[in-house]
Amino acid sequence: MHFSRFAAQLSNDAGIISLMEDLGSALGSDQKMYMLGGGNPSHIPEIEAYFRAQMLAIASDPAKFGAMVGDYDGPQGNEGFIRILADFFSELYGWPIAAENIAITNGSQSSFGLLFNTLAGETPQGDFTQVLLPLTPEYIGYADVGLGKQPLFTARKPIIEYIDDTFFKYHVDFKQIDIDDHIGAVCVSRPTNPTGNVITDDELKHLSELTKASNTPFIIDSAYGVPFPDMVFTDATPLWDEHHVLCFSLSKLGLPGVRTGIIVADAAIIERIRNANAIFSLAPGSVGPALVQHAIQSRKLIELCRDTLKPYYIRRRDEAIEQIRQQMHDLPVRIHQPEGAIFLWLWFEDLPISVQILYERLKERNVLVIAGHHFFPGLEENWQHKHECIRITYSSDSESVQRGIEIIAEEVRMAYDNQGS
Ligand SMILES: Cc1ncc(COP(=O)(O)O)c(C=O)c1O
Q: I want to staple 261 with a disulfide (CB 3.0 to 4.6 A). Which of 4, 105, 323, 359 is the partner?
């Protein structure tokens, strides 16, 4: 059998593959796994009950059910849903968004695959452009989506602000940001996966100005952002401009199974996404849009996020931090300022083993985390910091998070204690 060059890119060492495999095997395992590795949102009873009621209402209405499962939507996504979204963003933020600015995809992971390969890579003139990640660590899922021969990403190291004995925060190092003709797009996740960082309003504005000046699309991955799921625990203003490409997802609302992503962008970009949907998938799925349509139209979604989802994740975050303080008080651990999303990013300074080895030792003990080095797509320098950080997720059940942190503390302590022996 001869595989194509494309197949060679589907190599098994892609971080996202081991992450999703760990996630699947943890769910299917008959042993107790402490799943601190994946990005699965929590099953929040009130939120699930709400969407379950919506699903029952659709299922008991033959016309609605028939439309949801029996018809292909158009390749840009369900027209009614797109109109509702356009009104939603226009009314909520005063943005001049119309239906031509919105496309639906099969999850925001698909959005990124399509966007990155549309906005960067080989140009018709034979040049090559890249996606600039102005601040790494950045989302592991971007790393392997490039379909061309050359690396699709170029990335920059952050400035590290030490906040106190426990916390630190990454900032964009603007001295390193130069958006020339080789950059096809700039992308940030806000809040950031894996760190829980929320790049500041000033940083966002500055990046927006730089990208505008160079006529470069600026992609803002809002998988955890405002207005939904609103896993933002600090002040953060969303920003729209004609060159912005905003990517939303229904997943972190508790609906990863419906695979729905939303792109808000210039009409020319939306046209490409619509065409790509038609070519690769015929149409995006209809279940997600049908399920959330009412919540968006009635603004109930804002209320659910503000009053239920956000307080829930703040509580889970605080419990995890308290657990780390208790279990790791004697260890040189620092935590990235947890300003959003569902993760804590732990930095073990001068850890005598690489975090890949730590990951393997933890897996032996049924604890799944993600080793930090996966989160630096496009960063060429072999920065030691990459090998000293891990990402843990606090959206798993409380027992898993608690026991998982205990075991991480034991393994890390052993690594420091055995130093030199
Ligand atoms: C920052 C970020 N962007 C995008 C995605 C993709 O999410 P989905 O394809 O489920 O919308 C994820 C998933 O974890 C994520 O963390």
A: 105
* Domains in the chain: boundaries: 5-44+303-413, 48-300
5-44+303-413, which class in CATH?
A: alpha beta
d(CA 376, CA 397): 28
The preferred substitution site among 22, 197, 221 for testing ligand 1, maximizing ligand atoms within 8 Å of CB, is 221
Mutate to test the pocket of ligand 1, among 115, 145, 249, 374 (most ligand atoms within 8 A of CB): 249
Write the pLDDT tens digit of every residue in 335-363. Answer: 999 999 999 999 999 999 999 999 999 99
Residue ranges of alpha helices (H) inside 153-286 are 201-213, 267-281
Measured CA angle at 316 (ends 315, 318), to 5 deg: 65
pTM beyond 0.70: the answer is yes
Q: Does domain 48-300 have CATH number 3.10.580.10?
A: no
- For the chain, the C-alpha Rg in angstroms (whole number) is 21
Q: What is the pLDDT of residues 296-331, one digit of tens each?
A: 999 999 999 999 999 999 999 999 999 999 999 999
The minimum-distance atom of ligand 1 relative to the CA of 108 is: 11
